[in-house]
Amino acid sequence: MKITKICCIGAGYVGGPTMAVIAQKCPHIQVTVVDLNKERILAWNDENTDNIPIYEPGLSEIVAEARGRNLFFSTEVDKAIDEAEIIFISVNTPTKTYGKGKGMAADLKYIELCARQIAKIAKDNKIIVEKSTLPVRTAEAIKSILDNTGNGVQFQILSNPEFLAEGTAVQDLLNPDRILIGGDTSVEGQKAIQVLVEVYANWVSENKILTTNVWSSELSKLTANAFLAQRISSINAMSELCEQTGADVNEVAKAIGMDSRIGSKFLKSSVGFGGSCFQKDILNLVYIAKSYGLNEVADYWEQVVIMNDHQKRRFSNNIVQTLYNTVADKKIAFLGWAFKKDTNDTRESAAIYVADDLINEQAKIVVYDPKVSRRKILADLDYLETRTSEENADSIITFDNPYLSCEKAHAVAVLTEWDEFVQYDWQKIYDNMQKPAFIFDGRNILNKVALEKIGFVYQGIGN
Ligand code: NAD
Ligand code: UDX
Predict the structure, then answer these.
(1) Whose CA is nearest to atom 44 of ligand 1?
(2) What pairs with residue 364 in β-bridges?
(3) Catalytic-role residue among 8, 114, 242, 277
(4) Strand partners, 397
């Protein structure tokens, strides 16, 4: 089967970058990314590719190269479904906020809507690719919807989870550790797998393309995220012990990371992991385990999230305690709001929870983030429903200049590891702060010795 047209439903952090790279690497395939969100599609089509809705290093250049040639962003969902031979589903699968499984299970309503839409529109055989992260055995539900409401056409469902990390999405897509494709074990299923393998083989060497059955592929994605998050919670658990014992968590991480069985990556102690995936996917895993009655399995993984919540709360408690047990009317300058550097994404960022705690203590929070707008910051706080929007707006001041943000502050808190924070003129910041001038480095990126020499009271994580 020669592929000429691909459609992707969902123009978000995964659909957008992934399809841009497929279009760049496969100029012979027309790639159309569709979304119900008109504003988002409009931004993807902005004449100036610096204004596309997602900030990722290198992405705007790829979009500039492929857009209008063989990469299209559109709200015409039905047309794109109708024309494509392969349809990627890359819609959001957030944690359920209602009903059975509330706060734990993945909400699959957007997935189901896509399946029903495809069933309604498709008039010829299609390959449906699960790009979203889904509970194991979701392909079964999708197949059932397609087979029962379709127009008698054949659908093959593949699972092709995405492993990109935000901030490095383009590099991860161009040079992935592996591509995972799960499909049905039947002859037709194996043929469909081969079709998708050939798309990726345009730039990924075949020994990195792994094919499995559908269930292994679906479960591998949840497992990978659980293992990654578990490393962070493990090192964060040690950071608290380090603070009590005089050990330094950076030294401990280096020492254990040199053991090739452990490895050195993903061992940075921090104020806690954020992002749209880790917490959501682990809670989903916990829910699935419980639904099979596997309570010990569920409890084991839930502890990763419990530890992460503890780490965030510990950070805000420590600020209050260190500032003489009160931050009421004190100015706390936040450097960073994004959940990690090099992204404008703030979903589940530790900064949101730390700010919420400190506002409860009546602190004034002054935020500077190079890529996050005031509107987004306030929306993040409003989402927690801790207080009214007006109260949130009164408690948050934003500047697009870090020096202004830190002026007259009682403390600076580093919440995101943006490179630029390291380069600042810290003497200048110190001179304009209240004394004693405190720094709470939630990312262990600043130079403790140099800052203490200037006069700061410095506290990192785990040292
Ligand atoms: P996102 O919220 O940024 O994008 C999803 C998009 O889908 C939205 O723009 C939404 O409007 C659109 N959408 C929802 N229902 C639709 C419908 N019926 N028709 C058309 N458009 C629809 O989400 P994301 O971060 O791109 O994540 C998508 C999936 O990929 C999730 O399952 C997530 O777990 C997974 N994932 C995310 C990442 C990441 O780093 N963000 C990495 C790997 C996997
Ligand atoms: C993650 C997975 O890495 C990726 O494979 C998957 O596809 C989506 O989820 P992402 O959430 O975008 O990617 O970023 P990641 O680099 O994993 O960081 C997640 C959070 O963990 C961030 O808040 C980051 O700051 C934090 N982190 C990461 C640490 O605190 N310490 C570390 O050592 C690494």
Answers:
(1) 162
(2) 331
(3) 277
(4) 366
